[in-house]
Amino acid sequence: MKSSKAQEDVFGANIDEIWESAGFGIGRRRRRRKKKRKLGRRSRLTPEVAKMLGEANLLYAMGKFEEAVELLKECVRIAPNVPDSYHTLGLLYDAMSDRKKALNFYMIAAHLTPKDSVLWKRLASWSMEQGNIGQVIYCLTKAVKADPDDVDAKWDRASLFAEHNDYQKAAEAFEQLLLQRPSDVEVGKMVAKMHHKTGQCERAIQVLEKLVEEHPAEADLTAVNLLAELLMESGQFATAIAHIDHASTLYCPDQHLPIDLSTKAGICHAYLGNLEDAESFFEELSEERIEGFADLIMDVGDAYLALGEHKYALHYYGMLHGDKTFDNAGVCLKMAECHAALKETRAAIDLYYRVLQDLPHHIETRLTLATILDENGQFDEAISVLAPPESSESVGPPGDVEDSWWKDGEVRKKLAQLYLSHELYPQYLDTLVPAIQETLYLESQNHKVRNPKRLRKSVLLERVRWIEDRPADEVFHGFRPVLSSSNMVKAARAKKRLQQLLEDKKDRKAAALAAGQTYESEEEEDDEPIPNEVHHVKQPLPNLLKDEEHYQLILQCCRTLTSSKRYWEALEIVHHTLQAGSGLGQEKRDELRNLGARIAYQTRDANYGFDCVKYMVAQRPYSTSVWNRYYQVISRSEARVPKHNKFMLHMRSKYPDVVPTMIISGHQFSMISQQQGALREYLQAYKLQPEDPFINLCVGTAFINLSLGFRLSNRNQCVMQGFAFLYKYQRLVNFNQESNFNLARAYHHVGLVQLASTYYEKVLSTYVKDRPPVKLPHEAVEIETGIPPKKVTSDHDLGHCNLQREAAYNLHLIYKRSGSSNLARQLLKDYCSF
Q1: Which residue, of 73, 94, 113, is where some domain finishes?
Q2: Which ranges does the UniProt record give for the TPR repeats (predicted)?
Q3: Within a domain: residue 99?
């Protein structure tokens, strides 16, 4: 309302009345639907208005600006559709140095005289001075519409699109201009450049080819030069040569081609494999002075380098020696690359060192130089190129330390790789582990402060300002801002989202008031400050969790840590990788959990490894090997694992037919001397697998242990049942030495020493050779790291398979208790002496 009132005070009528009177309102749109009729001449001015305009012009000429303004306001009130009033107001405010008001009145005058292209172009110029690009484009569009033959307005409008990187619209605008002037070389080149900017290289080539073929007289060598560049970029070298040859015949039949075109022709011949023809085109480069053609020489050298013709490339790079512009570290780097490809190691090393003197922070140079030195047998020098400097003077100011070259991830990886290739495992781990740990920590922090799915309100408001940020005192609004299509979509979505938030807020307020509650406006989380920007800290190893190379690096590091018995660090890396690497994929996450379970088996605390083996068991609940690994981790842990019992109860209830859960539960009951609970679990397993030797052994052992209880009424029956299962177990394992020892031990345990002596003697009569312990594939971690496995060097490294010593010792206890000390001593001498 304030804006409408202010307009009425200025003009004597509001803007809607002016717009309607001028024919731009609803009434005009309705009249367009009617049958078209021939428009008559614009009605002449009334004598009163003409007189007032004349007086205003006289006052303007006399310098009485204020009086002229008041008189013109009255003119606007009486005749709001007369453009002369607004035009004169524009002149007055311009004379009064109020350019903003002058521009507004001129805009009204221009809309009332839409065919005045000169006025539209003047308004475009003034809008450009104010930096209102959207309004500039609007005015130039109106100028083009008023005068379709105005080439300058079309050119300025297209150039403005190009300057603000809206290349698609610039291409369309220049295309329209090219239709009007098809033989204009500059327009054709601009169309090609804009299409090239938008990635439409083929379309750009077509435009230039049409220009050269259909208008050869107007075209020139600059158009051919640009066409050749585009053809070479797209790999059409033969076509480029054909166009250059045609231009040579057409534009310079009696003289040589310009050196830039001849150089391009030579490069095309080189790419086609015609090196001799190419060199004939480059002869002029050798004869000319370097100063004016150094860039062309560089192009030739780069072309030969890309083709793998390193000798030719060296020749042309050498020509740049002494040039102030091109004789720099970049040329030395390319020459070093050529020497390295030609196996001229010494020259390559010297050039790389020269590059490092000028560019000490050039990472690729250090990596390449270290590789060449290592391959040349200079391992210590390779390490010195990549290792951090020791002297404090070479480190630099404290602010530069964070960006130092030795903290770069590629340098650290290359240094660690060199240590690993020479089996220097401690140095390898000291170099790589801190970088991996720091990167995983930063990645986990980034994961916590990751941008939410819904944008903050401040971000939405900022995007809406892209399309609505206009001064409040401007009369005309709504000019389309110069934004890319993607930004326009973002701004539109932000505006829609803000409207939705406002409606939701109103609904919540209405609901609260209807319920008799006081509504408290809750500012969304958008107004909360952004957390510490941990994600802007540079990571030591960027993209650690995003590519295969880094994933294999993590696996190699964990395996080497395990071989070095640094289990906790390895488990920590596995744990944090699983925590932060949500995008790794299920296969890689399973592999990491598998590795974590292997490492956890080597430790005495299963807190980290439990999560890995728990996940594996949950994925494959019927796999005996997975349950073996699970119980290995749990049984080796010296610390209590609180989650184990709860997990076992969950698995027993969810999978009642899984035998390993019954056996593990039975073992847990046996360890806390709850023999009835153990026997119950073992018998459940026996019902499912009655012919399993191990289950029969467990059931028999549980019965024997239960028979020794104090409150058992049927002790003898329990003992008989236990030995029944033990004898079945003996039969299932073909009466081997181990079964005899277990029976003897059971008889010894219940006090039947006569029968125990019989089975101990059977054990002594059977010999079993000791063998190395059997390792499952997941236990052979050393093999995966490339570290040579430990060889069996003595009997201490052999697994214990023969039970004669144990049987002899237990039998000697029986003899000793019965009084046969000599016999007992003889048993110890025969079987237990070293």
Answers
A1: 113
A2: 49-82, 83-116, 151-184
A3: yes
